[in-house]
Amino acid sequence: MAIFNKDNEHSVSASETTIIASGAKIDGVFNCQSRLHVDGEVKGQINSQSIVTIGKNGKIHGQVVANRLIVNGLFEGDANCDGVEVLEGGTFLGKVHSKELMIEAKARFEGESKIKKDGETPIVMDSEEQ
């Protein structure tokens, strides 16, 4: 069900979540405004204006540009987010450009991190640049 404001523009509810279920595989560019929960596998680029969560069995290979990335499964690639959390049991392999990076005990992080300055906006790359 879509929610519209007075100008008939689509607005996103804070409770909306897009789910990529276990067994599902997506290859390419995925754009969304709502929260995204990945239990399946995504290869390519994800652009989200909200939170991207990788479940325990979820995998993302590629680039994520989002407000926040929460890794409980496997992330391999480049992340450009305001905040990145690697939870216990989660694996992050790659580069992160973020204001905040949190790595829990028993989480795995291999790669590079760079601190994003206040006011710096995420860089959305064309799929050709991957």
Structure write-up:
With 130 residues, the chain is mainly beta. The strands form 2 sheets. Strands 3, 4, 5, 6, 7, 8, 9, 10 and 11 form a 9-stranded parallel β-sheet that branches. 0% of the residues lie in helices and 61% in strands.
Describe how the helices and strands are arranged:
Blueprint (H helix, E strand, L loop, with lengths): L2 E2 L5 E2 L5 E4 L4 E8 L2 E4 L2 E8 L2 E4 L4 E13 L2 E13 L4 E13 L4 E8 L15
Parallel strand pairs: 3-5, 4-6, 5-7, 6-8, 7-8, 8-9, 9-10, 10-11
Antiparallel strand pairs: 1-2
Shape: globular
Distance between the first and last residues' Cα: 34 Å
Count of helical stretches? 0
How much helix is in the residues? under 10%
Tell me the radius of gyration.
15 Å
List how many beta strands DSSP finds. Answer: 11
Return the domain count.
1
Low confidence ranges: 1-6, 125-130
Please report which band the strand proportion falls in: under 5%, 5-15%, 15-25%, 25-35%, 35-45% or over 45%: over 45%
What kind of sheet is the major sheet? 9 strands, parallel
Average pLDDT: 86
| Overall SS class | mainly beta
Order of helices and strands: EEEEEEEEEEE
In short:
By secondary structure, the protein is an all-beta fold. It contains no helices and 11 strands.
